[in-house]
Every structure is written in structure tokens, then in C-alpha cells.
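2024-03-11 09:14:02 DEBUG pipeline.ingest accepted 1 chain
2024-03-11 09:14:02 DEBUG pipeline.ingest length=169
2024-03-11 09:14:03 DEBUG pipeline.predict start
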Amino acid sequence: MLKIRKLTPAIGAEMSGLDLSRPLNATSLSEIYDALIEYQVIFFRDQDISPESHLSLALSFGDLQPPNPLYPRHETSDNIMILRSGPDCPPDTGGWHTDVTYKQNPPFACLLVARKVPDCGGDTLWLSLSRAWETLPVGIQSELEELNAVHDLGDFRNNFASGENDGAN
């Protein structure tokens, strides 16, 4: 039986009762989608998901984005990037960022599978930009509504974004 446990007042829920290593029926996929819309980030603990199951789940939510060419790929799929960090491989994502939202048509969601997580540290932190907006005073919201912004790669500027509109036009 599917269970959902809200994790914070603003963002995140843990879903249990689904085995992501097996094909999911339309009802289960709909429940995952609804939870993602409501909680923005969902976690599935203790899943033994294969690369094939990972891709199948991702495809159930839409087309895949081409992966960043700067990261290594999984040995069985060019559509799965490998992100590693450790003493000999420090993370290159230490600053706050959003995944691929600088694109004209950003993806609906990102799926991450954590294979090895340290007992301490190694956190991926999440925030809700919609909640941040909702909690701004109305006066500040009114001032900001009329502004335009350029969202770019900042710290991560590289050739992956070539051809993307930089907002200068």
C-alpha cells in the first residue's frame, strides 16, 4: 500500500509502498506525479533500481533531456550521468543551483539515484522557490512581477549551454 509522509512544511515527501525496480501501473505513476506536483521533491528509500528501471520511470514523465556532455555516463546508458564526489573527486556543485532551468524549455523533473551516501555529509539540499515567492510581502511581489531576469549557469558556465538564449536580446 502506498504511503506518503510529508517531510517539511514547505517541500518534500517520502513515498513508500512502491517497488521502483518493477514496471509501474498507470495508477502508481499518477500518484507519483501528483505527489511530485504537491511536494516538489519526493524520496523513495531503499530501492534497488536498475538503470533500465530508472530510464523507464523517467520516460513515464516525458522526453529525456540530453545529458551534460561534461559528466561521465553510465556504462549501459548514455542517458544516465554519473556524479561522483570524494577525497580524490571533489564535487563541482557546491553552490546553490537549479538543474537545467536555464534552458528555454527546462525538463519537468530530474531523477537522482544515490548509490553510496556517507554517514555524515554528502547532502543534497532542496528549496522551494514557489514557497519563497508565496511568503514574500505583497509589495515586494508587486515590484518583482514587472522585472525580467536572465537565468544562466553562473558557476557552471560551460559549452553545455551553447545555443541557449542568454537573455541579451
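2024-03-11 09:14:41 DEBUG pipeline.report The beta strands are 3-6, 13-16, 42-44, 73-74, 77-81.
2024-03-11 09:14:41 DEBUG pipeline.predict end
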